[in-house]
Amino acid sequence: MSDADISDRLRAFIRRFVRRDSTFADDQNLFKSGFVNSLFVMQLVLFVESTFSITVEQEDMDIAHFSSVNSLSRFVRHKRAAAQALARM
Prior knowledge:
The protein is mainly α. The chain has four helices and no strands. It has one domain (3-17, 29-88): Non-ribosomal Peptide Synthetase Peptidyl Carrier Protein, Chain A, CATH 1.10.1200.10. The chain is 56% helix and 0% strand. Helix 1 packs antiparallel against helix 2 (40-52) and helix 1 (3-15) packs across helix 4. The radius of gyration is 13 Å and the shape is globular.
């Protein structure tokens, strides 16, 4: 899955939860901008885990990982790379 695919899937999921007339940039903080609230994080975690086949650990629960499409995409790529590295061992 390419970086663009990851960002596209994340963007599409987030758009389902913001007002129809709202637009946001990939680097925009979704929480500070008021597009989503803290309760949305759990929905986002479940989506990320099921869509990208990764596990979000307790130590991963930093709002910085989930604040924008760009930060989420970096987080997913990092977790997938770590999982692939472990699988090769």
